[in-house]
């Protein structure tokens, strides 16, 4: 009898907990619906109601802080967001939301201190490195910013934000290889966004700058062995480009030669997912379509649209493949270090 009584109490407790969880989650979903509609006042009201039931629920607090932020009530947003990292169950998003608020109120010192604390707790979080770098960039601390983005690429190679920021940074430096490599990785990780179109412009312009540089690779060959290998192959294409210019067609040709040469000379020494992917596309007959996807619309939209019509089978094959594939980089393929 005693065992039956204990079992009944346990069942009742579990039922009560489940009901409470469903109750606050239902309110959270209502609030999210209001937020999606841009009705932040009602979302805030519902979230505060939910917090009356679940006063220490960090998911509700994060939603409330973010909704105050969207509503541009930064005083309230900071009031809710600032204690979040101190909670035992604080996660990366807790720091992200506080970072957004600090950015909005231009509290750079507090933001920097917060990001450093966050990265001690989550040292492999690519998104935190990305956002910390963006904050440092806004302070014009450019060298510090790229250090954060590079670290993010090293420890979390599948977070797209660090490649996006790093590609734009290197575009304005002499390190054209990294604008090209990081930019192309980015458009494969994040293939259909406004940022994708932006980086495709960076890629096309970077190739133009690369091949108009009479001293291509002169100041970079000694930086590290990976860079030296990349330029060793790319420099052999200069004469071909000089005769034909930079177009999606010439880029497809020189990049085909690059892939073939890379796998003849350097692939075993420097395994790299981006080049593996290019070789995969080349072997499957989709590399020309891929190069059109990367460069075509940016170089000449009318010519690209004409190409997709006259090469409909190739375009459709690649388009189907592109929408169904997952581009994922393994750990350990990081070569942006001196003498590596």
From TrEMBL:
It holds the Pfam family TPR_19. Keywords: Signal, TPR repeat. TPR repeats lie at residues 24-57, 92-125, 126-159. Residues 1-19 form the signal peptide. The keyword Signal applies. It comes from the Bacteria. PROSITE patterns: TPR (PS50005). The keyword Signal applies. This is Uncharacterized protein. It comes from Paraflavitalea soli.
């Amino acid at each position: 009898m005693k065992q039956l009584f204990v079992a009944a109490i346990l069942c009742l407790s579990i039922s009560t907990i489940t009901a409470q969880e469903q109750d606050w989650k239902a309110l959270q979903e209502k609030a999210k619906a209001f937020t999606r509609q841009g009705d932040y006042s009602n979302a805030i009201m519902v979230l505060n109601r939910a917090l009356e039931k679940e006063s220490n629920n960090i998911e509700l607090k994060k939603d409330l802080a973010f909704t105050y932020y969207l509503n541009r009530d930064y005083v309230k947003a900071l009031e809710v967001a600032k204690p979040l990292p101190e909670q035992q169950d604080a996660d990366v998003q807790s720091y992200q939301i506080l970072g957004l608020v600090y950015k909005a109120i231009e509290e750079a010192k507090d933001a920097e201190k917060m990001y450093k604390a966050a990265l001690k707790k989550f040292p492999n979080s690519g998104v935190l490195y990305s956002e910390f770098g963006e904050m440092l960039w806004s302070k014009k601390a450019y060298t510090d910013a790229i250090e954060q983005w590079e670290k993010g690429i090293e420890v979390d190679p599948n977070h797209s934000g660090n490649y996006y920021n790093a590609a734009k940074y290197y575009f304005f430096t002499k390190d054209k290889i990294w604008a090209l490599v990081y930019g192309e990785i980015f458009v494969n990780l994040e293939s259909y966004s406004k940022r994708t179109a932006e980086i495709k412009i960076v890629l096309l312009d970077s190739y133009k700058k690369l091949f108009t540089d009479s001293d291509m690779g002169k100041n970079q060959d000694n930086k590290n062995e990976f860079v030296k290998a990349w330029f060793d192959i790319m420099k052999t294409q200069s004469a071909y480009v000089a005769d034909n210019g930079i177009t999606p067609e010439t880029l497809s040709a020189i990049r085909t030669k690059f892939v073939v040469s890379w796998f003849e000379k350097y692939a075993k020494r420097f395994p790299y997912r981006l080049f593996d992917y290019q070789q995969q596309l080349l072997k499957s007959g989709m590399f020309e379509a891929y190069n059109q996807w990367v460069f075509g619309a940016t170089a000449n939209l009318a010519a690209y649209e004409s190409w997709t019509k006259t090469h409909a089978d190739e375009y459709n094959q690649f388009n189907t493949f592109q929408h169904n594939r997952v581009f994922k980089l393994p750990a350990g393929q990081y070569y942006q270090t001196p003498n590596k």
